[in-house]
Amino acid sequence: MKSHVWRPLYVVVALVILILAVRMFYVPKDFGIWERGYMYGFHRKGSENDWKAFKVKYKFDNEDCKDCHSDKYESIIKTPHAIIKCENCHGPELDHPNDPPKLTVDKRRELCLRCHYQLPYPTSGRANIMGIDPEKHNPGVECVMCHNPHNPTLEGLK
Amino acid sequence: MITRRQFLANTAKGLAGLALPAAAFEIIDPKKLFADKGGKPGLRWAFLVDTYKCVGCGLCVKACKIENEVPYDAKVSRTWVERYVITKDGKLHADSPMAARDGFTTSKIDLGDRGFEDIKAEDITKAFFVPKLCNQCEKPPCAQVCPVGATYQTEDGVVLVDRTWCIGCGYCIMACPYGVRFFHPVYHVAEKCTFCYHRIKKGLKTACVGACPFGARMIGNIKDPDDPVTKIIRTQRVGVLKSEYGTEPQVYYIGLDEEVR
Predict the structure, then answer these.
(1) pTM for the whole structure
(2) Nearest CB to B103: which of A48, A54, A114?
(3) Using the beta-carbon criterion (under 8 Å), do B127 and A122 form an inter-chain contact?
(4) Of A127, A133, B95, B258, which residue is least crowded by CB atoms under 10 Å?
């Protein structure tokens, strides 16, 4: 049957089939509705494994440093700085000492001021940390010129 | 001709017929039954923040940015720390310079384009720090609005973004009432806190929890009654942010103030 209605319809049907075919190859096999249902769980399952495979950088375990930097480890553990992880000041361990062979040593005053800039905030833990005003407390000199970060007690002053 | 009686009877039958399939579906959906009965040993991650303990050092933000490869000098961050200072005249002063990546190393409040505002110690009535991160909502509006299924919730309650599938439309960024989402400056797709999915799945703590020297951040399994985090959430006074949105956020706070939004 020849009709001006049928011909465009063929084109539309062909297009729909084409899109469905492309979709079949383009959309991954594991794409679908997973545990959290259509509203929240519509995704490619493999994406979860992509995220699980992301590289871990921080270990946050001071024991890891014990064998090679025993002086620092033994020193800090007896002081109020024992609560700070080595990696917080020296950066992520990764596969140190293989890669990177050295971790960073940050001697800037700003490192210490994160906690020691005096902020007398009554309802926050900050008020309990001994604070200084960097404009008055030996300005222009690195804190570690005088203080030992691994033994900050005043007996440990250099 | 249809009588009034027939019409009413047919309408009733029709309605009953319409209602039945929906109701039947509701009852026999096996996935739902399984979930409700807790067929598996439950795992649902939840976060707890103690604002009394936070000193605003920002080591959590630093660790998060490095661990998750969020460009260090970009202003965006998956987690950040806000400072709230309330003065005697009842005014609220709040800031979070560079997401507090370098902590708060001045008493001056950062007003952005309007410069800095110094506040005298004697004018302060209340002042504290509030760490923020993705609330990993039980009903995440961001996942609901995604038109392509690129952002989704895992079985254990974490909302993730599929970077290979995201088209960068930004709907999720607009949908999040907490403003935790942003465009990744390198990948140009939606980016958000993953509760360090790669770490918690290996039995490690998230980077921010591991970095905090003061124990202000904790993560745990809210379905395990013996988990220390769950015990605190169940037995102490905790709050969540913007509960009025009905998103059921799973980041709980100790010491929230009404000024915190």
Answers:
(1) 0.90
(2) A114
(3) yes
(4) B258
- Cis preceding linkage at A100, omega within 30: yes
How close, in Å, is residue A112 to chain B by CA atoms?
9
Q: ipTM of the assembly?
A: 0.91
Query: What residue of A is the nearest CA neighbor of B63?
Result: A88
Tokens of A82: 């024992």
Domain boundaries, chain A: 3-53, 63-156
Dist. CA B20–CA B206, nearest whole Å? 47
Q: Search chain B and give the residue with CA nearest A57.
A: B67
Around Cβ A138, how many Cβ atoms within 10 Å?
13
C-alpha distance from A10 to closest chain B C-alpha (Å): 29
Listed in sequence order, the residues at least 6 apart from B41 whose beta carbon sits closer than 8 Å to its beta carbon are B223
Q: Quick one: pLDDT band at residue B24, thresholds 50, 70, 90?
A: very low
> First and final CA of chain A: distance in angstroms?
101
Of B58, B68, B255, the CB nearest to A114: B58
Closest CA to B131 of B253, B259, B245: B253
- From chain A, the residues in CB contact with B32 under 8 A are 37
Q: Which fold has domain B1-261?
A: Alpha-Beta Plaits (3.30.70)
